[in-house]
TrEMBL record:
GO terms for molecular function: tRNA (guanine(37)-N1)-methyltransferase activity; tRNA methyltransferase activity. It holds the Pfam family TYW2_N_2. CDD domains: AdoMet_MTases. Residues 90-337 form the SAM-dependent methyltransferase TRM5/TYW2-type domain. GO terms for biological process: tRNA N1-guanine methylation. Keywords: Cytoplasm, Methyltransferase, S-adenosyl-L-methionine, Transferase, tRNA processing. Its EC number is 2.1.1.228. It is an enzyme of class 2 (transferase). This is tRNA (guanine(37)-N(1))-methyltransferase. InterPro entries: MeTrfase_TRM5/TYW2 (IPR030382), SAM-dependent_MTases_sf (IPR029063), TRM5-TYW2-like_MTfase (IPR056743), TRM5/TYW2-like_N (IPR056744), Trm5a/b_N (IPR040601). The keyword tRNA processing applies. It catalyses: guanosine(37) in tRNA + S-adenosyl-L-methionine = N(1)-methylguanosine(37) in tRNA + S-adenosyl-L-homocysteine + H(+). It comes from Thermococcus kodakarensis (strain ATCC BAA-918 / JCM 12380 / KOD1) (Pyrococcus kodakaraensis (strain KOD1)). GO terms for cellular component: cytoplasm.
Length: 337
């Protein structure tokens, strides 16, 4: 859930304003961080339009609600404390809950479904997730409860995203990252997004900024869903999105350069030289890097900049945990000349 970061002295008046606008999330507790306070707000596009920094933070539920709202505390009724240690983080994508169930909890699958339905009464499907596979990065899922489908419409950052988890990659945890990029973009920019999937980045950016986006995706199913998503959101988009189906390594060399390139690179693919060659001012390049190799990764980018005759400044941000000591990172590469 989002939270607004505000200097302490402004917290009380802003809290009153948020309550008036019905945007304050009273089920959660605010949190103090140095000279700032994080105020819990509901997931509504209006919170992003108040001129304050909005962060994706899971602020704790107030104790009286926690009993009903937190999967771990619900399952404490049925699972032992030893079993609870194996409980993994789960995602709710539209009306589908997806959870990884480790072998130690396989025998508790029914209880986990019961707990998820208690915490999220609106869900219609519970799916067990496996790993991402192949170039299209599609996860292997098995439905363990509910309707036999893996299609749904997910709401995020003020857009609706139709997904089919059996056919195309989608990661709801990148919501904050998509919002971060949308904030960096300026009206009027021309943006290139290879590896575009069902278009989550393109939709969120075009929702908030008057830009022209060219997106490229190889997977035909993701491409088809991407086109549906442009239609689904047509009325709320300020920007325009053109979607090309094809292999980024063949399509990009035929395209002009763009002010900004965003590369949600599939794991194991090296598209650094290709995407940098298409960027005039900014490249946001995602990759998976061991924490001890982050410096090396930055050096590799600077070396590629030198090769291409570009003077660059690189800032690397950890975006999420991938596995122990390995992070999904985003290199924000600014091309100075
Ligand atoms: C990590 S996913 C990111 C998808 C999307 N940007 C998102 O965040 O949901 C990488 C995407 O690149 C696509 N892909 C893989 N190889 C490709 C290629 N050579 N050209 C274009 N797209 C490709 C996959 O089908 C997949 O949708």
């Amino acid at each position: 859930m989002p939270a607004i970061k505000v200097p302490k002295r402004e917290a009380e008046p802003l809290k009153r304003k948020l309550k008036k606008l019905n945007l304050y999330d009273g089920k959660r507790r605010p949190r103090s961080e140095g000279d700032f306070v994080l105020l819990p707000v509901i997931d509504d596009p209006r919170v992003y339009e108040l001129g304050h920094e909005v962060l994706p933070v899971e602020l704790p539920l107030r104790p009286e609600r926690q009993i009903y709202k937190n999967l771990e505390s619900v399952l404490a009724e049925r699972l032992t404390s030893e079993e609870l240690k194996y409980l993994r983080r789960y995602d709710v994508i539209g009306d589908i809950a997806v959870i990884q169930i480790p072998p130690e909890l396989e025998h508790r699958a029914e209880d986990i479904v019961w707990g998820l339905r208690k915490v999220h009464p609106f869900i219609k499907v519970v799916a067990k997730k496996g790993f991402h596979e192949g170039a299209f990065r599609i996860r292997d899922y098995s439905i363990i409860w509910g309707e036999k489908r893996l299609t749904t419409v997910h709401k995020e950052n003020g857009v609706e995203i139709k997904v089919d988890l059996s056919k195309a990659f989608f990661n709801p945890r990148m919501k904050g990252e998509r919002y971060r990029l949308a904030q960096l973009v300026k009206d009027g920019e021309r943006i290139l997004i290879p590896f575009a999937g069902v278009l989550p980045y393109a939709l969120v950016i075009a929702r908030y900024k008057k830009v022209k986006i060219t997106a490229v995706e190889l997977n035909e199913d993701a491409y088809r869903l991407g086109l549906e998503n442009i239609e689904l959101n047509r009325k709320r988009l300020k920007g325009e999105i053109e979607l090309i189906q094809g292999d980024a390594f063949k399509v990009l060399p035929e395209l002009p350069t763009f002010e900004r390139v965003i590369s949600p690179t599939p794991r194991g693919v090296d598209a650094l030289a290709l995407t940098l060659s298409k960027a005039q001012k900014w490249l946001h390049y995602y990759d998976f890097v061991h924490e001890e190799k982050i410096g090396e990764f930055g050096e590799r980018i600077l070396e590629e900049c030198r090769k291409q005759g570009k003077d660059c400044r690189v800032r690397i941000k950890k975006v999420s945990d991938f596995k122990p000591h390995v992070f999904k990172v985003c290199a924000d590469v600014e091309i100075l000349g």
